[in-house]
Design goal:
- By secondary structure, the chain is an alpha+beta fold.
- Helix content is 17%, strand content 35%.
- It is built from three helices and ten strands.
- Strands 3-10-8-5 form a four-stranded antiparallel sheet. Strands 7-6-4-9 form a four-stranded antiparallel sheet, with no helix packed on it.
- The radius of gyration is 24 Å and the shape is rod-shaped.
């Protein structure tokens, strides 16, 4: 036999929910149902679900493969871990910069030809948190450059 929930029981359940890190609670005991959810501020979700692509060295940022060439990526374009998102030129050396994450480019923070420092944010990527369906198929395969 299921006993009905008293008001103090519901209060205790909701207090436990508030202390937890869960976003939603649904509890059904016979005819009684307790449901609660919390909303996370959009800024917190955005901060948690973004990554910065940082300059791995100092030099001049190139948006394209060559000076003046079209940008390799633009805001709203999808990138994967190995997507080349820009180049950094140091003297005569040109170094490809990979995204290092999967998602959609939310913003590009530097202009073509701009000098960048080591660790400076080049772009922000809105992360794709869904599992990569092709990861298992690519596991164990070497990268060819």
């Amino acid at each position: 036999m299921i006993h009905p929930l008293a008001e103090v029981d519901v209060a205790a359940i909701l207090a436990s929910f508030e202390r937890s890190g869960f976003g939603r609670l649904t509890l059904e005991l016979g005819p009684a149902r307790v449901a609660a959810s919390r909303t996370v501020p959009a800024a917190a979700v955005a901060a948690a679900a973004t990554a910065q692509v940082a300059a791995p060295l100092l030099g001049f940022f190139q948006a394209g493969r060559e000076p003046g060439a079209p940008a390799l990526v633009r805001p709203s374009e999808r990138v994967t871990e190995g997507t080349v998102v820009g180049m950094i030129r140091v003297l005569e050396d040109v170094n490809a910069i990979e995204a290092g994450c999967r998602g959609i480019v939310a913003a590009v923070h530097v202009r073509d030809g701009e000098f960048v420092e080591y660790g400076q944010a080049l772009m922000t990527v809105l992360l794709d948190l869904a599992p990569d369906p092709g990861a298992a198929a690519r596991a164990g395969q070497g990268r060819v450059r």
